[in-house]
Amino acid sequence: MTGARRVVTPSGSDDHVINGVTTTSWEYADADTQHLTHNIHRYSGKFIPQIAARAISLLTKPGELVVDPYCGSGTTLVESALLGRRAVGVDLSPLAVLIARTKVTPVPTAKLDSLRRDLTSTLENLKSNEDMPLFRASSTESALSSQVQRDPRFNDKWFRKWFQPKVLEDLIAIDLAIGQVMDARLQDVARVAFSDILRKSSNAHSGYPNVMFDKNAPKRAKPVKPFLKTLARVCEMISSLEKADARWEGVRVDLGSATALPLEDCSVDAIVSHPPYIGSIPYAEYGALSLKWLGADPKELDKKLTGGRRQSPDVVERFRAGYDRMLLEASRVLRPGRHVFLMVGNPIVRGETVDLAAMTLELAERTGLQLAVRTERRGVNRRANKMGAEHLLFFRKIEHLRRSDPRAELSLATTEVSEVRSRQ
Ligand SMILES: C[S@@+](CC[C@H](N)C(=O)[O-])C[C@H]1O[C@@H](n2cnc3c(N)ncnc32)[C@H](O)[C@@H]1O
Question: Tens of pLDDT along 176-194?
């Protein structure tokens, strides 16, 4: 297999992890990555579910707690529940949290059916009026139509730029209709479907992952039909959750930062995560259309993300500081002797390749996390190839590190480790 490297650890108690990591390939080139809810919404830089599942199985037992501090669309959380583990996911993006929470929340099929029925009948009238602005005041003006006209987004510069007038009217109507859904779980399901159609309904160029304005954008299709179609697809995936043999009730998703985890010291059994690719995947930019409809400000989010504001000259330094903080937090919340798994690529930032694997190794060691074993995968998608191989790094928290600030104990720990190494 590609590039597996054993690391001699002082305790030698990582044998099962080392064997599990080095015996077979991590490529999963032909794996089905779409099972259950993994495909309810696009999300850049997703984990391959099989990689997350393998790491979770290697590092934990059923009932134990797995944490993903950069949970994104929630791949680690779905796979943890399927393996009977508890899980906590944290992400700063409200879009990520919406997708991840929806992915792991079962809803009875009967309820999903009534959601589709109700939204279809509310929105059906819109569909028939193809050539006229929808909900335009008429003698039989509906309550929804007058709400659309009064909605601040209807005359907002940003919304006017990104959506053609008739499309915008329909989108506002759909959004208002979703807002009327009382059950929060059902509202989330509908919001995921709504978010997933925004890109195609907008004036964004279709050929780029970035949301780039296309001043020659062709006339866009009205969104009601695509929304109802996507809703049907999302509902079908959500209804599969109930039938799956999984522990959904043990999963929690928090809107928050990896730099301040909402968890007690020494309470977590494994960290399984896939950190941001610095500026190579600008999450706030890619999700801008959805974030705006969720009431978030993509620019403000970009300032907070680890690796955000990708054009600024200090982006790598800021990334490093935030990433370091996450590693300290990971070390704080992890039980001594347990593991952190991180998969990183080497992204190109402002024209230069950043050795994220080397940065991870350097920072982790300083937070009391020792490398247990590492390996590589070539990666099969375009972006991963552009970033070269992906590095799979497994760290183990030093046994005696118990206090809330791992670095405070670190000089002692480092001395101890080097003593053990020099004896080998
Ligand atoms: C590579 S993606 C994770 C993808 C995830 N593994 C999946 O399968 O969908 C990295 C994530 O880190 C999030 N992020 C960046 N900085 C963060 C921070 N300081 N705290 C929490 N999340 C952050 C981004 O919003 C993004 O969702």
Answer: 999 999 999 999 999 999 9
Q: Do 263 and 230 fall into the same domain?
A: no
Residues 71-93: tens digit of each pLDDT: 999 999 999 999 999 999 999 99
Distance 254 CA to ligand 1 centre (A): 12
Q: Rounded to whole angstroms, how far apart are CA atoms 1 and 377? A: 9
Between CA 298 and CA 302 the distance in angstroms is 6
Is residue 280 lining ligand 1, measured as CB closer than 6 Å? no
Residues 128 and 99 in one domain: no
Residue 364 to residue 410: CA distance in whole angstroms: 11
Q: Which of 92, 104, 392 to mutate to test the pocket of ligand 1 (most atoms within 8 A of CB)?
A: 92
The whole-angstrom separation of Cα 44 and Cα 285 is 11
73 CB less than 6 Å from ligand 1? yes
Domain co-membership, 291 together with 375: yes
Instruction: Identify the CA nearest to 327 among candidates 70, 150, 110.
Output: 70
